[in-house]
Amino acid sequence: MAFNFLKALKECSILYCEDREDVRKTFALILKDKVGSVSYCEDGASGLKSYYANKPDLIITDIEMPNMDGLEMISEIRKDDADIPIIVTTLRGDQDCLLKSIDLGVSNFLIKPIRKQTLFRW
Fold first, then answer.
1. Alpha-carbon gap, residue 28 to 31, rounded angstroms
2. Cα 15 from Cα 120, distance rounded (Å)
3. How far apart are CA 4 and CA 79, in angstroms?
């Protein structure tokens, strides 16, 4: 029996951290019919709290956010769970950011703007 990615996604819980409300709303529309549940946060500090409260199956996070950036949040989460899949989204495609993401064990690194087809490729 073949693995059914869309069925697995329907049972998945996602934590999505993004400081721009328009981007969060767009992702909400993209994810609403495909994912079991999504928690939305506007910065890394609230994302970290949501992570501990909900223990999602997957994290998608922006890097540049107020209060705590995405890389700081990931670093804290990795202290608790070294294996949770994390996807980083960013407008910045610089080498330092990419290398830090690799060091933190992110699953994927996506440059914005992100198309729906690109997001569901993983």
1. 5
2. 16
3. 31
Q: Would you state the structure tokens that stand for residue 102, as one six-digit string?
A: 């690799």
Per-residue pLDDT band for 96 (boundaries 50, 70, 90) equals confident
- Contact present, 52 and 59 (Cβ < 8 Å): no
Burial group, residue 71, by CB count within 10 angstroms (0-12, 13-18, 19+): buried
**pLDDT tens per residue, range 61-87:** 999 999 999 999 999 999 999 999 999
Is it the case that residue 2 has pLDDT exceeding 50?
no
Is 60:16 a contact under the CB 8 Å cutoff? yes
The two beta strands, 13-17 and 58-62, are parallel
Q: Backbone phi, then psi, for 95, in 5-degree steps?
A: -65, -40
Task: Please report the domains of the chain, with CATH numbers, ordered by start residue.
Answer: 10-119 (3.40.50.2300)
